[in-house]
């Protein structure tokens, strides 16, 4: 039975969105010399603000500001850098409601997630790397590890502030300075973060934010005075970036796509597995690189599990991201919605069976209902390509060896999940799954102390934990 709840919207009065924004360079907000673009609320298509599109010249100014700041910042004792990072972390906590509401407005994700997942993790990343800043000689990278210099960082729209934290916190802790480009559709929380840098009295130029589209990102990646490139996004753009930095002195980390298998054995606690499957693919509308987008279920329990899963999906609430009862928010952009539709239609064309719970989609904005495909073959596009939406492909297996074979039958290798009550089976599976992260009896759990990254076409390098320091040190 589905309970009806009265709407419980979070107030948006807590955010103050300016009609237009410039770039954040050398500690100041400045006008760009390029054009500008609009950022919209994907749940209503309302224009939220007009944001500067940084030209190559603007990117050059930002890189020069970062270079100038690098001398003092890198020479500062780690214990002093830590103070700034701790201060930023505390301000993020103090302003977390404002940041969460802004994130939900610009991205479309439910406030329940931005408030309870994104923001606590963002603060935790800054706290965690603040703790490393004065302990770098003990991190296992030599007695006096040195920073690389200026980091050019390009991030996607699915976790705008969290990806910013993953990139900026370790870079600064190690003594680098940064120029960061947020995604075109979600620039607002990065610009609020710029304000937080000012509030924390961070020395000018240590953090620079250049907004814009792909060309701005390319100008940053190609800039000759950038020492390190860090990218999270599609495998396609990751390839372009790898090509453009090949043969240069630039150090690169790439966090790319995924097509994770979430594997449920017949001895798993089924209700718990159902929650894990839902969290694995419907969290953040499935806009998650490590989403459990392929459910591999042991044949003997497939029917029972699917029934339970469908029952559970019928209780998910889709709608206003700012409503605290909402489970599924808006798709981030019209372009992403078109891609999800195209791949799902193809799934039907290829012969898979499509199912969604009865659910009313709002008239305005970009929406897609939670969707399950059964009868999926490994050759289907929905089993091979990253949909990056709330779409689950269900496949079955009979033996553990078959599960491993199917799970690894993908060009990606970012994450995987295993559901079973046997510890020995978890370890056996984890040994054989070619994935950077293997979750056992849980899914989509993140922690700043734990490294994250991929195999194969999911990219290279690790972010998070002690391992995440390596990407920003000259080792
Ligand atoms: P992109 O890879 O294009 O975007 C990631 C970031 O790179 C954005 O800031 C983007 O700017 C920027 N960018 C785009 N082109 C270049 C370039 N040539 N050089 C440097 N930077 C560039 O992802 P999309 O937003 O286009 O999404 C497309 C698909 O990618 C999704 O449908 C999904 O499948 C996948 N994706 C995967 C992610 C992951 O974490 N695995 C994250 C995001 C997307 P701009 O925003 O202006 O395009």
Structure description:
Helix 1 packs across helix 7 (214-222) and helix 3 crosses helix 4 (111-132). It is globular, with a radius of gyration of 22 Å. The longest helix has 22 residues, at 111-132. The model has no long low-confidence stretch (mean pLDDT 97). By secondary structure, the protein is an alpha/beta fold. The strands form 4 sheets. Strands 13-14-15-12-11-16-17 form a 7-stranded mixed β-sheet, sandwiched between helices. Strands 8-7-6-9-10-18 form a 6-stranded mixed β-sheet, with helices on both faces. The chain is built from 15 helices and 18 strands. It binds NADPH dihydro-nicotinamide-adenine-dinucleotide phosphate. The site of NADPH dihydro-nicotinamide-adenine-dinucleotide phosphate (NDP) has 26 residues, from helix 7, helix 8 and helix 11.
Relevant terms:
alpha/beta; binds NADPH dihydro-nicotinamide-adenine-dinucleotide phosphate; globular; 475 residues
In short:
The chain has helices at residues 56-75, 78-94, 96-107, 111-132, 160-173, 188-199, 214-222, 235-245, 270-282, 302-313, 334-349, 381-384, 400-408, 423-432, 467-470; strands spanning 20-21, 23-25, 28-30, 36-40, 47-52, 150-154, 177-181, 207-209, 228-232, 251-255, 261-264, 294-298, 353-355, 371-374, 391-397, 415-419, 437-440, 459-460.
């Amino acid at each position: 039975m589905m309970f009806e709840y009265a709407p419980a919207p979070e107030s948006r009065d807590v955010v103050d969105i300016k009609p237009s924004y410039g770039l954040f360079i050398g500690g100041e907000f400045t006008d760009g010399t390029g054009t500008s673009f609009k950022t919209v609320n994907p749940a209503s298509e309302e224009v939220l603000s007009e944001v500067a599109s940084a030209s190559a010249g603007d990117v050059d100014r930002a890189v020069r500001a970062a270079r100038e700041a690098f001398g003092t910042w890198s020479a500062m004792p780690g214990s002093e850098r830590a103070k700034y990072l701790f201060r930023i972390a505390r301000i993020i906590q103090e302003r977390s409601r404002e940041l969460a509401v802004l994130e939900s407005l610009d991205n479309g994700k439910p406030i329940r997630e931005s408030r309870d997942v994104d923001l606590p993790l963002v603060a935790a990343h800054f706290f965690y790397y603040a703790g490393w800043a004065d302990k770098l000689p003990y991190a296992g990278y030599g007695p006096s590890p040195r920073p690389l210099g200026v980091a050019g960082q390009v991030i996607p729209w699915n976790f705008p502030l969290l990806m910013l934290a993953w990139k900026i916190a370790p870079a600064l802790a190690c003594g680098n300075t940064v120029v960061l480009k947020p995604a075109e559709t979600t620039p607002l929380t990065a610009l609020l973060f710029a304000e937080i840098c000012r509030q924390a009295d961070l020395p000018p130029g240590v953090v620079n934010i250049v907004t814009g589209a792909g060309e701005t990102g390319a100008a940053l990646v190609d800039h000759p005075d950038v020492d390190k490139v860090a990218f999270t996004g599609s495998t396609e753009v990751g390839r372009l970036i790898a090509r453009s930095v090949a043969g240069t002195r630039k150090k690169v980390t790439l966090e790319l796509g995924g097509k994770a298998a979430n594997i449920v054995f017949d001895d798993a606690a089924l209700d718990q597995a159902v929650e894990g499957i839902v969290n694995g693919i419907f969290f953040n509308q499935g806009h998650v690189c490590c989403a459990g987008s392929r459910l591999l279920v042991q044949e003997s329990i497939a029917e029972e599990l699917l029934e339970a899963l469908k029952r559970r999906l019928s209780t998910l609430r889709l709608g206003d991201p700012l409503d605290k009862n909402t489970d599924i928010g808006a798709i981030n952009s019209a372009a992403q919605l078109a891609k999800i539709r195209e791949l799902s239609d193809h799934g039907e064309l290829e012969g898979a069976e499509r199912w969604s719970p009865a659910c009313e989609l709002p008239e305005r904005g970009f929406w897609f209902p939670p969707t399950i495909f059964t009868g999926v073959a490994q050759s289907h596009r929905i089993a091979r390509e990253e949909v990056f939406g709330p779409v689950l492909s269900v496949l079955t297996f009979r033996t553990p060896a078959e599960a491993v074979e199917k799970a690894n039958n993908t060009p990606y290798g970012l994450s995987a999940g295993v559901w079973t009550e046997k510890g020995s089976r978890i370890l056996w599976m984890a040994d054989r799954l070619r994935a950077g992260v293997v979750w056992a009896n849980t899914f989509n759990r993140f922690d700043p102390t734990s490294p994250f990254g991929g195999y194969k076409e999911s990219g290279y390098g690790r972010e998070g934990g002690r391992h995440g320091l390596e990407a920003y040190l000259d080792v």
